[in-house]
Amino acid sequence: MIVGYFIIVVALVIIFTTLASEESETVSLGAVKAERKRRKAEIFRPVYPLVEPLLDKLNLRKKIRTRLGLGRWQILPEEFMARKIILAALFPFLLFFLEVSTNAILLIIFGLAGFILPDMILNSKIKKRKTAIVKVLPETVDLLSLCVGAGLDFLSATRWIINKVKANAMIDELKEMLDEINLGKSRLESLREMSKRLNIPEITSFVRVLRQAEKIGSPVEEAFAIISEDNRRTRRNRGEKQALKAPLKMLIPLILIMLVLLIIVGGPIMIHFLKGGLGGNIGA
Length: 284
What we know:
This protein is an all-alpha fold. Helix content is 82%, strand content 0%.
């Protein structure tokens, strides 16, 4: 029984590490698409005929592709769904095969856990990337403001930043926006698509202010100054909230440490008392 549990834990760790170790570096959209086409894990290929009709009937292909692109997980939607199905079948099989448990409810729970594990990893990647975008947004807006103040238009300023600034998540999104503009989309439409794709309040505010500035004809440099100030204020407020939560988060491990110390110090005394040693010493 113990060996079975140990094997399951090792298998889960290996699976989780394999899934989470997929490259999620900041790369251009073209590189992501090329990498997706190139990489098709052979182990998942037999499952493709099963998942492709499922993706088409439920209209999940576009949604999964968007989420994979946002998290920069360089796999195809078919491979992502194949992983979910394989893990959903693998986890209960391990429990049953190793005779760890034959309880139907437990097998179903492990199957559901295997099915949602890739989603949990992808959501973690997306959250991490959104956090990186929000972190560098004020500095990026400041650079845009400086470039526009120096006489460049918005697109020229964006190109300059893409070429000169070290690659990060926000620069990657600007590259994608610029690619869409080069393919024929308008600037506002590309900005709107970026806001919709990322679904980040700071990016939504950034796009809204730019749209209003173009609509009423106000200088873009002033709009950038407003956006930068708002983003810095939001980031400062978020930092203050995190600082207020820190004591509560520290309280839980402190309580656990105190419990461990209590067990270590009081455990031997309690055992000695229960065995009658303490009472015998008092009687003596």
